[in-house]
Amino acid sequence: MAAIRSRKDRDGVVIGYQVQVQRKGYPAQTKTFRSKADAQAWATIVESEMQRGVWRDRSESENTTLMEALDRYAEEIIPSKKSPKPDLAKLHQWQAKPIAKMFLASIRGRDVAAAIRDMEAEGKAPNTIRLYLALLSHLFTIARKEWGMEASVIRWN
Predict the structure, then answer these.
(1) What is the pTM of this model?
(2) Which of 71, 112, 117, 141 has the largest CB neighbor count within 10 A?
């Protein structure tokens, strides 16, 4: 069952709503929203997923930006590669793009498509763009499989 509480500032003005979903067999989930409608919608989704047995903890991928994931990838994965310099250069270019400020769980196919259009406008060859996408794909695979970021999957909608 979800509990929704209003969050107030020092003057008693409502500034948001905190939702807590508790269900037996699952860790308590808490999130804060600006509007009550958003809070209720999130609670409904989480409760539904828990009831159907398909719920996954997305908190880490919802709180990790692509920039932070790229930094972690640079520290943990790239040093073990045969030739790390080209991947490191690609990684730094990904970090310079606006998509790097987005949270992993919120990145969609249209965001990646916009980054691809930017690369095409810069004059990058199709194969070069493919190599950039391969690095991004590997990062998301590592985030999901090794770092436990369950929602780290690009949605193409």
Answers:
(1) 0.66
(2) 112
Per-residue pLDDT at 61 exceeds 70: no
Tokens for 5?
A: 């509480």
Return the half-sphere exposure (C-beta side, CA atoms, 13 A cut-off) of residue 131: 12
Instruction: Enumerate domains of the chain plus CATH numbers.
Output: 2-55 (no CATH), 61-145 (1.10.150)
CB atoms within 10 A of CB 87: 19
Question: Do the beta carbons of residue 30 and residue 47 sit within 8 Å?
Answer: no
Residue 69 to residue 83: CA distance in whole angstroms: 20
Q: Residues of 111-146 as b/e, b for ≥16 C-beta within 10 angstroms?
A: bbeebbeebeeeebeeeebeebeebbeebbebbbee
